[in-house]
Amino acid sequence: MKRFLCVILAAIIAAGCVFCLAAQPDWNGPDGEDASPTLCETGRGYVVYYWYTPGIYYSPDGVTWVDLSDRQWVKDAADYRYITVGHYGHREFEFLWTGSEYMMRQSLQDDPRGTHRHMEDSPRNNAVTFLDEDFQIIGEKTFDSPVTAIRYADGVYYATADGTETAFSRGDWAEENPPAEEDSGTLQAQLADAMNPLVRAAQLFRTLLKVVVSPPLPS
């Protein structure tokens, strides 16, 4: 019996190793194409979020995905998901790696019809949120209106709000740091867990069940 179990375990591990070597990127992410994914290139990997589910995931390569659901900004955004199911709300994120942290802007809007509103638009719409390499909040720069674009060049941060682009420095947002989030484990540790051969074998099994051909990376 023990020998039989060892053989089964070895087969599972071998399948996981083969999957690690042969796996192809799945740019739809863990929740799949039916959840209507949006893929963001950050400059340091990829983030995928969805129209129909609250899931938000990070991947360095499109093969291994890490769930970011325990981050506070993801929890705050989850309540807006069901609004988008009716196609009347708006759910949008943008991420940009600067070399030392991520700039993030978001647009989470409630149903514009007054009789169908469930909550106010997210207050974080009016801010550039700064995230560390583990996607934890480390600071923010607030504006008087929603931020519609962000960029970074030569050590200077830029944000567009109400049609006007504003340049600011690291000191401008570092002074407004909110309290540090409770540590939920590093992203690298989460990636290491996700790359475990047994986990990969399970992913392979799910992939075979879906029988889905991975789409190309959007241009």
Major beta-sheet overview: 4 strands, antiparallel
Ranges where pLDDT stays below 50 over 5 or more residues in a row are 210-219
Number of helices: 6
Computed CA radius of gyration, to the nearest angstrom: 20 Å
Strand-and-helix sequence, N→C?
HEEEEHHEEEEEEEHHH
Q: Can you tell me the overall shape?
A: globular
**Amount of helix:** 25-40%
Model description:
The chain is α+β, with helices and mostly antiparallel strands. 27% of the residues lie in helices and 28% in strands. It contains six helices and eleven strands. The chain has a four-stranded antiparallel beta sheet. Strands 5-6-7-8 form a four-stranded antiparallel beta sheet. Strands 9-10-11 form a three-stranded antiparallel beta sheet.
Topology (elements, then pairings):
Layout: H1 2-22, E1 37-41, E2 46-50, E3 56-59, E4 66-67, H2 72-78, H3 81-85, E5 90-97, E6 102-109, E7 127-131, E8 137-142, E9 147-153, E10 156-161, E11 164-168, H4 170-174, H5 187-194, H6 197-210
Helix pairs in contact: 1-6
Give a quick set of tags describing it.
four-stranded antiparallel sheet; 219 residues
Summarize the structure.
The chain has six helices and eleven strands. It has 219 residues and is an alpha+beta fold.
